[in-house]
Amino acid sequence: MGERAEFDVLVVGGGPAGIAAACCAAEAKLRVAVVDDNPALGGQIWRGEPASPGTSQSATWYQRVARLPVHIIAGTRVFAPVGPRTLMAESEDGVCELAFRKLILATGARERFLPFPGWTLPNVIGAGGLQALARSGVNVRGKKVVVAGTGPLLLAAAAHLRQGGAEICLIAEQASWRRLLAFSVGLARHPSKLKDALALRRELAGVPYLAGCWPVAAQGKEKLDSVILRRGAKTWNVPCDYLACGFHLVPNTELAALLGCRVEQGRVRVDDFQQTTVADVYCAGEPTGIGGLELSLVEGQIAGHAVAGHLDAARGLFAKRKGLRRFAAGMDRGFALRHELRNLPQPDTLVCRCEDVPLGRVREHSSWRAAKLLTRCGMGPCQGRVCAPAVEFLLGWNVESVRPPVFPVRVESLIATAASQSPS
Amino acid sequence: MTPTYDVVIIGGGIVGAACARECAFAGLRVAVVEADFAGGGATASGMGHIVVMDDSKPQFALTRYSQQLWRELAYELPPDVEYMPCGTIWVAADEQEMQEVRRKHDFYGVRRVPTEILDPRSLYEAEPHLRPGLLGALLVPEDLVIYAPCAARFFLRQAQARCCDLHMGRVTGIRDHGVVLQDGSVLRAGTVVNAAGTWAKELTPGLEMRPRKGHLVITDRYPGFVRHQLVELGYLKSAHTLTAESFAFNVQPRLTGQLLIGSSRQFGVEEKSVDNHIIAGMLARACEYLPELSRMSAIRCWTGFRAATPDKLPVIGKCPGHEHLYLATGHEGLGITTSLGTARLLLDQMLNRAPAIPLEPYLPGRVMETAHA
Amino acid sequence: MPDLVQMTINGVAVRIPRGSTVAAAVLLAGSSALRRSVSGELRGPLCGMGVCFECRVAIDGRRHVRSCQLLCREGMEVTIGG
């Protein structure tokens, strides 16, 4: 580390899509590396899954990648390109240059957070966020958790937390019963998804699942005490230790955009073989459109086969991908955000948590850039990753423009980009 | 047809906004036409420093005059303008630079600008994080730092509170009777002021001006790490050469506790994108003076373009060959500093008032291509 | 017997299960908040995956380090509330 390494295929992101891509490429005898900013592989959904023998889906994939000479570069964050085929990455110890002939972006997604009064209190955490923290060592045993927001992630997070000993008070899903019903009908066409859904239902037996329900305020002094929920005309208070709240997912497209890939409506545009509009740059999984675990695995495999030139193997997965994408479209419709959520934040509710900018000040402007320069919203270290999706939903603005570094890095890491041996 | 306005100002950046304010205070009916949002051009990209510079006597006169106008506003400016009277410390790394320190001290002393020569002990007391081995410095306590986009907005609001209209739109042509906008509409005015910065030349083609690209980096919050704006004396060599590319050490504390790191200059580059090599070179230079910077978190990088004239002085005055067109542009890296002075001098000319400093050095005739009719 | 890592949080010695992240360690040690926002509000982790920056703490004297993706190390000195 701290040097330059060259690979046939570099995979950015070690979640399911990245692991699947790496496996297919490495099985084709290509020299493959996976770089991820977490301490180990797994991305979000498989975070902390033990790589022990077993028959679970994650274990199967972990075993498969472990059998292959794939270079795993963990705890390392890609932050900028330094040439047409080289990315610069930073870890706690230094920087490294990662050179490639083909690049597969499997950068996943992040949760969408919507502001409401009290959302900045400690113990108001994302749904995936609290699940991630629980997988990273946080003890939720005996803690009362309200799970709220939208999307299948709420169920997965609630089930996982319950397994960890948490008491799930209820799950508040903002989508209406009508929409959920329509979505469930779509489930029937996907037997494996139906099976998963029923399994989740069993794991969450006894936990109230309320549709058309959302948080209107989090209350507490130095940390969360309770959540006020609304459903129809009724609002009520639920005391709890944690509010695990997230409103579905937003693709992580920043690196793709920085590399010049076409990004449309927040999704990286790819062809049938998962290639982006930039030659030799592929993208698989959530950044091409939120679609869940199975779709990420399929797209990852297609990309892995494609970079190896195994186009028939890739084509063999097209039908499965098509079906899963149809399911994903249904998911988008089912869990679309209702307009009432736009009214949750008050003028003094913070929208930008890095710079503590309230909605009232942001709203005075007519574009993201003006709001950013005149209120500081989006100028903080998160580079708008938290506030921009919220602002896009609340105010209908288009948030664009990405510059290096795509994450904050140490000054010395930026200096190291000039020492790059690759021609710019 | 009577003009709608006495003055139309093209450009709502810091210079245009300052001019609008000055016009409104003088009782003129003024309109500002802005294509994006007020303060969104070079105003938004720069460091927001308000410094006296003595590269030439006219440059000194204008920067000092304008700085004093800024200081008069200290209590009027709203908090989001982040007015910081932190002063500047010009750092000397060798004997040649110390001679420059003494020369500046004398030059400013004669002209009643307070400065203080710092010996190494005083320098390190003032700025403990500077690398050891520096020979001393010049402290200019009356230099300031502000946040320019909010200042531009403030000036415009002051103008709008009197008799100023802000029109959102892009000017495509200047006529004798006013300006033509992209949507075909016309704003009629007795006088037009071209304060369009790097776009000024599109509307006044004879103007000899080139964009000079700069890069900046801002860090996370490290309050108290640096207390003054810090500049190397080599800055002068950078700002005032005409070579393709140059860096100089320039670190500024922001009120938030963040450190703003510059500076760089490039001619002949029209691409807006961030260049890793420039960023790296600029940061490496900064770390030579502040070694602890290297482990700090850099949050963002960006670029901007300064409008630069061949003699590094702005153009302020009537455009030769035009009865009704004035220019207020070409401020290179001193737009924030000299915005208020520019506005005053512009109005002095428009209203035939006696200017506080001679305005001949800034008249546009000197940088207009003679072939232009 | 769980494998524990010895470290300090604001000078107080704690023992944390190996494999935990620093953010988890702080929560395990009993504090819901890791930092103060720019206007002084107490803040805890939000995203759990390194994008929100609410989990910034000082590690061994270095400020603004995200703690939710960093594994605890023996002897690590964590400072929260900055």
What can you tell me about this protein's structure?
Chain A is of the alpha/beta class. Chain A has 3 domains: about 5-110 and about 250-330, 3-Layer(bba) Sandwich (FAD/NAD(P)-binding domain); about 115-245, FAD/NAD(P)-binding domain; about 345-395, no CATH class. In chain A, about 30% of the residues lie in helices and about 25% in strands. In chain A, β17 (about 265) and β18 form a beta hairpin. Chain A is globular and about 60 Å long. By secondary structure, chain B is α/β, with parallel strands linked by helices. In chain B, α1 (about 15-25) packs parallel to α10 (about 335-350) and α3 packs across α10 (about 335-350). The mean pLDDT of chain B is about 95. Chain C is mainly β and about 80 residues long. Chain C has 1 helix and 7 strands. Chain C has one helix at about 20-30, and strands at about 5-10, 10-15, 35, 40-45, 55-60, 60-65, 75-80. In chain C, a hairpin with a 2-residue loop joins β5 and β6 (about 60-65). The interface of A and C includes residues 39, 48, 123, 137 and 354 of A. β22 of chain A pairs antiparallel with β16 (about 295-310) of chain B.
Distance between the termini of chain B: 27 Å
Please indicate the percent range of residues of chain A in DSSP E strands (runs of 2 or more).
Answer: 25-35%
Strand tally of chain A is 22
- Series of secondary-structure elements of chain B, N-terminal to C-terminal: EHEHEHEHEHEEHEEEEHEEHEEHEEEH
Q: Write the CATH fold name of the largest domain in chain B.
A: FAD/NAD(P)-binding domain
CATH architecture of the largest domain in chain A: 3-Layer(bba) Sandwich
User: What average pLDDT do the residues of chain B reach?
Assistant: 94
Q: Mean pLDDT across all residues of chain A, rounded?
A: 94
Helix fraction of chain B, binned, reads 25-40%
**N→C terminal distance of chain A:** 22 Å
Number of domains of chain B: 2
Total discrete domains of chain A: 3
Structural class of chain A: alpha/beta
Q: What is Rg of chain B? A: 20 Å
**Sheet bearing the most strands of chain A, described?**
7 strands, mixed
Regions with little confidence, pLDDT below 50 for 5+ residues of chain A = none
Provide the low-confidence segments of chain B as ranges. Answer: none
By CATH reckoning, the class of the largest domain in chain A would read Alpha Beta
Which percent band covers the strand fraction of chain B? Answer: 25-35%
